[in-house]
Specification:
7-stranded parallel sheet; 5-stranded parallel sheet; 3 domains; FAD/NAD(P)-binding domain; Rossmann fold; single chain; globular; TIM Barrel; alpha/beta
Length: about 600
């Protein structure tokens, strides 16, 4: 397992029960687990709830965790990292050092340029932390030399503008990293992995040619392996997070080239989330080692399932970063869009004492999760769905670069087969009267604003193949998540798009990386965006707009798309609630996101 931030500490950096259960659940079928990045000084935290290795007082707690993983005959890797200028500016007491006084392009404080005294103090910080790691029972140390963190800030010609012996030439820019490596080797007998970005994916950053030369030096210094990734958090976060918007396999090619040129064991990482990926890496890349990150968040038993030690279908990672990134950033701790158990590993689930007849109305994400979890709890479940499984999430994977989202619908479709009775018909109060308990997951419907003349329009179903237009002039009313994604797809099929939004900002509610890349893609496209604007009236192909200080008339509008939000749809609630236990979940309770819908389905099964 590669390092994935959990955010499960309490602000003091100690190990908690949540850490132990989270890593135990993922240790059973792996060769090694890398813990989340361990902060080496309380002033160097990336998140307030990070695990620390900054004092001897932390050793006992870390030892409890490594012991709990060792019971599965799984090795434990300590990932040591100095964030440099990427230290979190929102955490009181944090400080900011770097090769040069350049602010991270993604934001944060302007760092101080390190002098030799500071450089020596950081070298000692790594060595002391490595000693503690060995005392705490870790088997391997991984040093973070990539992803735009401090070591990479010295290596990268974009960030390092020094003129002393730590800047300028390649030999000078790698000097600090090699000094850290030498100090760690002296401080511990443990094998050392170096994690690096083979390419920062920016024109003037770290490039593969230099990383091959660097890897040859690392080999001479007897590193155990090189963990090959890409990107920098400051400039190319989609590559850092291996987001669904970047192509799968680029990091694998980098690892292969380093392995072939250097002859050092390499670790392959990056969007490895299917059995086919593993087969490809073993067969075509002859991978020495494979590192899994978010695939093990989405399914703790990923390896057990792909090696057929567990005869179950794998819950898929969609590389969306929605829960695993958003939860940590928000302070909730690591979560997952597709796996509602993440963050709740310490919850105890038991089979129901009495099996009940449970009806689930609605086959969207909330309904399918409720049906599956209720079945696993021991109930006899009938799922009613009017149209097709997946509900409105069948539209979610139609915008550009989002086809991986279809995986979760395919997953539920497979796991429900032969376990849950699926009735493709509309449920009524009468048909539901024979059940012991009922879960209402009837979803939401689009809110249609009372605009004069608005009689003919599309909603997101315009993205379906049979509806998708080309070479049209299209007005999108509403610039939130749905409106922005609709516009993105319509631009891809050569339409002219005008987006009108009442509020002052578009793409609200969109995952951070997707938002940034989507809005970037709008540049130089045939789109006009008008915020703080209302549609006053529609007359045929003419649309009248009004803002705070202007009025405008649009002409020759071919198609209108309404994306002004959703309202929960729950027609059966009043009819049923006085007769049998009834639960409303997902959008039927309150229109929201996919992650909330799945979580609701999981939680309701606990109560039945």
């Amino acid at each position: 397992m590669s390092p994935v931030k959990t955010g499960y500490s309490d602000g003091t950096g100690i190990i908690t029960k949540k850490h132990i259960q989270f890593y135990q659940d993922r240790s059973k079928y792996l060769g090694a687990i890398t813990l989340e990045p361990l902060y080496m000084d309380a002033g160097l935290r990336e998140i307030p709830t990070q695990i620390g290795i900054d004092s001897d007082a932390k050793i006992a707690g870390l030892k409890n965790l490594t012991d709990s993983i060792h019971q599965f005959d799984t090795k434990v890797i300590a990932h040591l990292n100095h964030p440099g200028r990427m230290t979190n500016p929102k955490i009181p007491g944090n400080y900011y050092w770097s090769a040069s006084p350049q602010q991270c392009e993604a934001g944060g404080a302007t760092p101080k340029q390190m002098d030799e005294t500071k450089i020596k103090s950081v070298i000692k910080l790594f060595a002391d932390s490595a000693k503690r790691a060995e005392q705490a029972g870790f088997d391997i140390i991984e040093l973070q030399f990539g992803h735009g963190y401090l070591m990479a800030q010295f290596i990268s010609p974009k960030v390092n503008t020094r003129t002393d012996k730590y800047g300028g030439s390649f030999e000078n820019r790698i000097r600090f990293s090699l000094q850290v490596l030498d100090a760690v080797k002296k401080a511990t007998t443990l094998p050392i992995i170096i994690r690096l970005s083979a390419d920062e994916m920016i024109p003037d950053g770290i490039k593969l040619e230099e990383m091959i030369a660097f890897s040859k030096i690392l080999k001479e210094k007897s590193v155990a392996a090189i963990h090959v990734s890409a990107g920098t958090l400051c400039n190319t976060p989609p590559w850092y997070f291996q987001h669904m918007f970047v192509p799968k396999g680029k990091t694998w090619e980098f690892a292969k080239k380093i392995k072939e040129a250097v002859g050092v064991p390499t670790i392959y990482v990056g969007q490895i989330n299917t059995e086919e990926d593993i087969e490809n890496l073993n067969t075509n890349y002859k991978a020495d080692y494979i590192a899994l990150g978010r695939a093990l968040v989405a399914d703790a038993d990923f390896v057990g399932k792909i090696t057929h030690q567990i005869d179950e279908i794998m819950r898929p990672c969609m590389a969306c970063s929605e829960g695993c990134l958003g939860g940590v950033r928000s302070g909730k701790g690591l979560e997952c869009l597709v796996n509602p158990k993440v963050g709740k590993e310490i919850d105890i689930w038991t089979k129901a004492e009495n099996s009940k007849k449970v009806a689930v109305v609605g086959g969207g994400l909330a309904g399918m999760e409720a049906a599956f979890s209720s079945y696993k709890k021991g109930h006899k479940v009938t799922l009613f769905e009017k149209n097709k499984l997946g509900g409105q999430f069948n539209l979610a994977y139609l915008p550009p670069h989002k086809d991986s989202l279809k995986k979760i619908i395919d997953y539920y479709t497979l796991v429900l087969q032969d376990k849950v009775e699926i009735v493709f018909n509309e449920a009524t109060a009468t048909t539901l009267s024979s059940f012991d308990e009922v879960v209402l997951a009837t979803g939401a419907k689009p809110f249609i604003p009372p605009i004069e003349g608005l009689t003919k329009y599309y909603w997101a179903e315009i993205l379906e193949k049979q509806n998708l237009p080309t070479n049209k002039k299209i007005l999108v009313i509403g610039g939130g998540l749905i409106g922005t994604e609709v516009a993105h797809k319509l631009l891809a099929t050569n339409n002219e798009v005008i987006m009108v939004e009442m509020l002052g900002k578009i793409a609200r509610g969109m995952e951070m990386i997707e938002q940034k890349l989507t809005l970037k893609s709008f540049k130089d496209k045939k789109i006009k965006i008008s915020v703080n604007t209302k549609v006053q009236k529609i007359e045929g192909k003419r649309v009248y707009l009004e803002g705070k200080d202007f009025k405008e008339t649009l002409t020759d509008i071919d198609i209108i798309v309404v994306a002004t939000g959703m309202r929960n749809y729950n027609p059966l609630k009043e009819q049923l609630q006085n007769n049998i236990p009834v639960y409303s979940i997902g959008d039927a309770k309150k229109a929201g996101k996919a992650q909330t819908a799945i979580k609701d389905g999981y939680e309701v099964a606990k109560m039945i």
